[in-house]
């Protein structure tokens, strides 16, 4: 399953393969063209960024190499490596040549894409908007089923595979309330499970 963010796409199926091996969680944070914030958890290593459909984060731009760069984990520390890309990878404005350790708030630039590295300790999910872009499938799906902004927000979390407990934390509600909201969304979209909802969303 791919989640589209306009001109970049998060491949959730690839992220499900493999487990996070360290105790510290890391995220990539970026801005959409409309200025809204998105974040995604790096929960599989290596985490590949590139134009190829097998990338964990697909960057839809002809200037990006098919496998442009990757984030790897070495002894509880994460590093970024350029994968011999055509146009290179910048870290904090400098072209990287060898694997380079990533720190909180480092800025990664790949062609016209910019991402900021965040640890779980440095990111408040409640202040971030995990969403898709104006032309994303979520908006057409939302219009079809007349979803409210709150339901659209909930849908954006569900299609990313975020747990009910974490959704509750993000939305400032209890896990029980989050579960009720999910059940109402399933009923509104005439589905009976998360999997059925995601399948219907993907086929929209």
What is the helix content? 25-40%
Envelope shape: elongated
Counting structural domains, the number is 2
Please report the first level of CATH classification, the CATH class of the largest domain: Mainly Beta
User: Averaged pLDDT, please?
Assistant: 79
**Main sheet record:** 7 strands, mixed
Low-confidence stretches: 12-22, 126-136
By CATH, the architecture of the largest domain is named: Sandwich
- State the strand order across the main sheet: 1-2-6-5-7-8-11
Protein name: FHA domain-containing protein
Domain FHA: 47-96
InterPro entries: FHA_dom, Sig_transdc_resp-reg_C-effctor, SMAD_FHA_dom_sf, Tscrpt_reg_LuxR_C, WH-like_DNA-bd_sf
Domain HTH luxR-type: 140-204
Describe the structure.
- This is FHA domain-containing protein.
- It holds the Pfam family FHA.
- InterPro entries: FHA_dom, Sig_transdc_resp-reg_C-effctor, SMAD_FHA_dom_sf, Tscrpt_reg_LuxR_C, WH-like_DNA-bd_sf.
- The chain has 204 residues and is an alpha+beta fold.
- It folds into two domains: 23-121, Tumour Suppressor Smad4; 137-203, Arc Repressor Mutant, subunit A, CATH 1.10.10.
- It is 26% helix and 27% strand.
- The protein has helices spanning 12-15, 137-145, 149-158, 164-170, 175-188, 194-202; strands at residues 2-4, 8-11, 26-31, 37-42, 47-50, 57-59, 69-74, 77-82, 90-91, 94-95, 100-101, 107-110, 113-119.
- The strands form two sheets. Strands 1-2-6-5-7-8-11 form a seven-stranded mixed beta sheet.
- A hairpin with a 3-residue loop joins β1 and β2.
- α4 packs across α5 (175-188).
- Mean pLDDT is 79; it is low at 12-22 and 126-136.
């Amino acid at each position: 399953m791919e989640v589209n963010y306009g001109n970049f796409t998060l491949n959730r199926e690839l992220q499900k393969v493999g487990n996070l091996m360290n105790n510290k969680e890391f995220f990539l944070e970026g801005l959409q063209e409309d200025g809204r914030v998105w974040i995604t958890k790096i929960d599989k290593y290596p985490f590949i960024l590139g134009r190829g459909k097998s990338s964990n984060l697909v960057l839809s731009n002809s200037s990006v190499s098919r496998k442009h760069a990757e984030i790897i984990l070495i002894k509880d520390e994460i590093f970024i490596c350029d994968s011999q890309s055509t146009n290179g990878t910048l870290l904090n404005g400098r072209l990287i040549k060898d694997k380079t350790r990533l720190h909180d708030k480092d800025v990664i630039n790949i062609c016209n894409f910019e991402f900021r590295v965040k640890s779980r300790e440095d990111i408040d999910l409640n202040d971030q908007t995990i969403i898709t872009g104006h032309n994303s499938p979520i908006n057409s799906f939302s219009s079809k089923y007349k979803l409210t902004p709150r339901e659209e927000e909930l849908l954006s979390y569900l299609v990313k595979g975020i747990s009910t407990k974490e959704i509750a934390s993000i939305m400032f509600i209890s896990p029980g309330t989050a579960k009720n909201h999910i059940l109402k969304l399933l009923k509104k979209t005439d589905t009976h499970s998360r999997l059925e909802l995601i399948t219907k969303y993907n086929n929209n």
